[in-house]
Amino acid sequence: MIEQAVNLEAVGRQYQQARAAIARRVIICAGTGCVANGSLKVFAALKNEIENRGMDVIVEMGHDHHKSDVFLSKSGCQGFCQAGPLVTIEPDDYLYVHVKPEDAKDIVEQTLIGNRPVARLLYKDSTTGTVFEKWHDVPFYKRQHREILGDCGNIDPEDIREYIARGGYEAARRAYTQMKPQQICEEITASGLRGHGGGGFPTGKKWTLTLAEKSDKKYVICNADEGDPGAFMNRSLMEGNPHRVLEGIMIAARAIEADEAFVYVRAEYPLAVQRIRKAVVDAEKAGILGQGVFGSRHNMFCHVMEGAGAFVCGEETALMASIEGLRGMPRPKPPFPAQNGLWGKPTVINNVETLGSVPLIILQGSHNYRAVGTPNSPGTKTFALTGHVVNTGLIEVPFGTTLREIIFDIGGGVLDKNGKIDADGFKAVQIGGPSGGCLVEEHLDMPLDFDSIKPTGAIIGSGGLVVMNRDTCMVQVAHFFMRFTQNESCGKCVPCREGTKQMLALLDDIIQGRATTKTLELLEQLAVAVQIGSLCGLGKTAPNPVLSTLRYFRSEYEAHIFQKRCPAGQCKALAVPEILAERCKGCGACLRKCPVGAITGEKKAPHRIDPKLCIKCGTCAQACKFNAIVGV
Fold first, then answer.
1. Is the pTM of this model over 0.85?
2. In total, how many domains does the chain have?
3. Per-residue pLDDT for 2 more than 50?
């Protein structure tokens, strides 16, 4: 590792020369998803197989120009989580999916020695049957615009030299040696960059307000306390390119004249914590962080802190309280962090993705950044695409991309309850997590940006996209997110503490069949009261999933309440127990197992369930080998 102030050009040139001496690079995805599916075992198997063949393999890039057959390396999340573990081969650009340790032999024999792809490991489109050799031809990747995630999945996230070789830290050097704080703020303002953490507040404006404050001490905080269910954008960027985030933090600090920063990472992200900490240590060793940044008179120090595991700590004032050693609870605003932040000092708080966009803007200029996206929402946005969709994973698209493009082009379409593609199966997508709302079929061609989405009652939020098919009960969706926010409420203010509890109880009544004609009216009134009266963003947005599902799926609520029926057939308490005559063989297994004698019937003839006697214990369904029993 470099022991003195870094010469970026020399380090980059040295790395590129060393890389040029290697014939092939094999990159194993080591993001959290692929690691959970066994990618590290694939790495070990490949290393063992290559060595057994007598080939020269390196697993860490050296400083010399040693010729080698294979460079075997790990990367962060490559995005295509549905198809992991993933292996890519350079310079062939082969993408192998669902790789297992036992596939190592064929990869070495056929690709590394035989110079041809392993056909059975290539991605095959489930709709058209087309097989793709090159990763950039796969529809999942081809239809994206990867800028923030550009190097995620391509570089070793734990090697600072590779980041530098790709132009890393050049933007920070420019900011510290060639630009004044006001110039940086003006460039970010001109770019139109808005906060990607949920609110969409103009980043340049936030920095300008903080720069204007006179103080002997200022702070920058990177909010990496990503807690939305189904969201993993920030985690993946920190795991895949931590130096990109760190460089954005450095530029933000220079812009507001701060010399100290905190990265607040949720404790449930151990790999992200490990990699961002290593990035800080390596940057300090390289002379990039610390005293006299890039030979200037400016200092910069960065600390990594694990979060307290509370969703509310994603709110900026609660986050600052947690860093200060206090219980993570929000406080009223104003004053805003720009005036009175961490330990009472002016503070800028941006999320991971926002800071990851900053080096791009400084390097390519605000006008180039604005060339992508929409006029009021420039640039790109990362989304975590999950739910009933063929291709789940991490994607990046320009603001203004439609849901139809994301779900059907990149995502590959909607799956039914049996895991088959259903062209007409789309019902809704939950966007923005617990703070967001539902978008429905009429919104499929609406451009996704901060302004276009406002009239729908939803928000872009941090970028979670949960796709739901027509077998989804929307009342249960609202119940799930309300239970989450109720559990995560810090309890400081009454509207959130008690309001979410009562809203959850009302949703329980609807799902369990106890609701009356007054339930729906009370639920709506309470949702509006919580929205208006809560102290922080958690409480103010907690009713969004309820209000948006009521707006677009009121008939489902009414069916639950007035007809005591769940249209999707998902609410057990409202299901009518039934034995399907066309499936029943009259074997008597269910009759013998029923503990309350609710089933009758003759041998080899369809049986029947008495709904009045049935207690819905499910014992009969477990005993039936023909899947003939429903509603229990």
1. yes
2. 5
3. no
